[in-house]
Amino acid sequence: MGRSAICFGEDADAQVTGDDIKRVEAFARLQRSVVLLPLVVRDVAPVATHVAFEKRHGIEPAFVHQAFDAFAELPYLRVRGDYGSGKTRFLLITGSLCYKPIFASGASTISPIFRILDVFRGTLIIDEGDFRMSDERAEIVKILNNGNVKGFPVLRSEVTRDKEFKPTAFSVYGPKIVATRGDYQDPALESRFIKEEMGTRPLREDIPINLPPAYKEEALHLRNRLLLFRFRNRNKRRIVEGLIDRSIEPRLNQIFVPLLSIIKDEEARKDLKDLACSYQREMTTERGMDTEAQVLEVIQSLQEVGEPLSIKEITRWFADRHSEEYERKTTPKWTGYVIRKRLHLRAQRIHGSFIIDPTQGPLLKRLLQKYGVSENPVSNSRGTSGDLGDFERDKEDGRQSERPSAQQSHSPDEARDHSVS
Predict the structure, then answer these.
(1) How many CB atoms within 10 Å of residue 318?
(2) Domain 12-237: which CATH class?
(3) Least confident interval from 5-14, 22-31, 49-58
(4) What is the pLDDT of residues 76-111, one digit of tens each?
(5) CA–CA separation, 194 vs 170, rounded Å?
(6) Distance between CA 112 and CA 405 in Å, rounded?
(7) pTM of the full predicted structure?
(8) What value, to the nearest 5°, has the Cα angle with vertex 328 and ends 323 and 330?
């Protein structure tokens, strides 16, 4: 079938002939070994061959996204660890077997990254990916957040030869493998990664400290075989709807289901599902330590004792429990901000007091489960499961009140004692 791809490596000049010259000139600005492509199509290698190659050079078998563009969403892979833990070795070996790997360092600027991704549509591999700014406002974070879903290109104005500005779209969709020493500030980006901690096990004696030159030839040989695997399987891979687990977060389903749809081995599928469930528990635990979770715990306690869900009452209970954990004074204004802007619960003014809208019951139930405050639906002797209980019936009777009655207690502990008695 002739040469259908160019390998930008140390032997690139020897491999390029004829019509490929124009293509080489178009990408002359690329440093050698930045992009690795298959050279020819060869028979598909047994899985054991890939496993042996990866184990021999110091990593466990890794999944290679040879058919990633058959799916609308895909996960990223991130390895994290201290210096000397094997992160760079992981990237070199795993990356050399990926589909059209594009190697870059964390010092790279934004412009060449999205342009190269648009040209090659391959796997971006970033070493030392700890960016100075990694919150949701950083440009590199926005590109990574959009790059795991089809349909969100980077838009730029390109200057033409006539000195005119031409709007141009650059596709950034594709697999990405990143090595970092720490976490990213943006939790949305963190949620797109399947994570691997490096340096947790001792180095095996059969792993070479320095990579031998022969590994490049072995990797090229396997990439040639993987190219045939892609030709045979690219159009056969589809999302298997039956693999969706409704008990975990939608984002986790989004990144794990494409992998599960490709894997045929049931044991491997089970391991991957167990990993997704562990991520779900980890996410719930992390949310449970947030301020939002503390506010929800107070709201749940107020529901259990039949207290009105007023902002003032929530603030008072919150201050009794958590005031020592915060440097600033807990005020109704601050509590109202957390409730309205971060939990997105509506509050309405009734008789001079702001009270959580009774129609927010289903959303409140979902928030309690999401933040791990309530594994089971909220219930009490005066209200129904998942709603605002006695407060909602008071609204119907037109008997809402801002504060508890004189018989009710004025502290969380006293309120519980009174409700029991």
Answers:
(1) 22
(2) alpha beta
(3) 5-14
(4) 999 999 998 999 999 998 888 888 899 999 889 999
(5) 25
(6) 66
(7) 0.70
(8) 55
